[in-house]
Amino acid sequence: LPAAPGNPVVIRNTNTSVVVTWGASKDVKHLVGYYIECSQTGTDIWMACNNKPVKETRFVCHGLTNGANYVFRVKAVNAAGYSPSSPDSEAVVVKAAISVPGKPTGVTLLEAVKDRMVLVWTAPANDGGATVRGYFVDYRTVKGDVVGKWHEMNHQALTTTSYKAENLKENVFYEFQVRAMNMAGLSKGSVPSAVLECKEWTITLPGMQEHSSTFGKKGSLYRDPLNINHTLL
Fold first, then answer.
1. 225 occurs within a structural domain
2. Residue ranges for the chain with pLDDT beneath 70
3. CA angle 216-121-143, nearest 5°?
4. Which pairing describes strands 185-186 and 146-147: parallel, antiparallel, or unpaired?
5. Which residue among 69, 94, 119 closes a domain?
6. How many domains are contained in the chain?
7. Rounded Cα–Cα distance for residues 50 and 39 (Å)
8. Among residues 68, 94, 120, which one ends one of the domains?
């Protein structure tokens, strides 16, 4: 009979599949292939992942339950019969290896100057398993109980957690939301900001001095908006 295959290693793949690899069975003559079995942890019920032997030492197991914990084992087979089972793999939760990020949070107005607003927010706590590559800011107008449709402000991803929204209308009320992007796609929109009026307004932060500026009303005092550069990754 063939010797037992080496320890299986399981890698997440999709919401319903994983990739299983293992060490080849040694000192086996006329190997027909391998069978892979899986079991939800705590059940001790084993199910076949493949209905015919595979000759490679890698197999994608499909049809698993998203969010469930599984362990895997492998058997080799030749004309003489089946090998003993390999050791069980470590348990793995079935879920996509990469997903879109979570929502950004805390969309806040830092400064407003007539027809522009400086917004800041916090990066999502969950990056979806891949680096967040940028952000998109959406806006909508609010007039009393009438709320407009969302419109995208920037067409290239922002690499910072701040944005200077320009070409707005003075004394108009706006809401803003932010979406994060990684290689899997775009997150859902953040919780919208508070309803914000676009008018000259200043908030003083520690360590930043007020001074005259060419923006806004003549002679008014406020800090310059953040100097923000946006680059597409």
1. no
2. 201-233
3. 60
4. unpaired
5. 94
6. 2
7. 14
8. 94
Chain segment 170-202, per-residue pLDDT in tens: 999 999 999 999 988 999 999 999 999 999 865
**φ, ψ of residue 210 in degrees (nearest 5):** -85, 150
- Which range of residues forms the domain containing residue 171? 105-198
In a domain, 233, yes or no: no
C-alpha closest to that of 161 among 190, 184, 183, 140? 190
Residues 30 and 59 in one domain: yes
The most distant pair of C-alpha atoms in the chain lies apart, rounded to whole Å, by 94
Secondary structure (3-state) at 56: coil
- Digit-coded pLDDT (tens) for 73-95: 999 999 889 999 999 999 999 99
Rounded (5°) CA angle 171-210-195: 30
Q: What tokens were used for 73?
A: 């084992």
Number of neighbouring beta carbons within 10 Å of residue 69: 14
At residue 57's C-alpha, the angle toward residues 53 and 63, to 5°, is 65
CATH code, domain carrying 82: 2.60.40.10
CB burial of 94-132 (b: ≥16 within 10 Å; e: otherwise) equals bbbeebbbbbbeebbbbbbbbbbbbbbbebbeebbbeeb
Assign 79 to helix, strand or coil.
Answer: coil
Residue that is written with structure tokens 């299983």 in the block: 20
Q: Are 176 and 147 in contact (CB under 8 A)?
A: no
Task: Say how far apart CA 198 and CA 223 lie, in whole Å.
Answer: 16
pTM of the model as a whole? 0.60
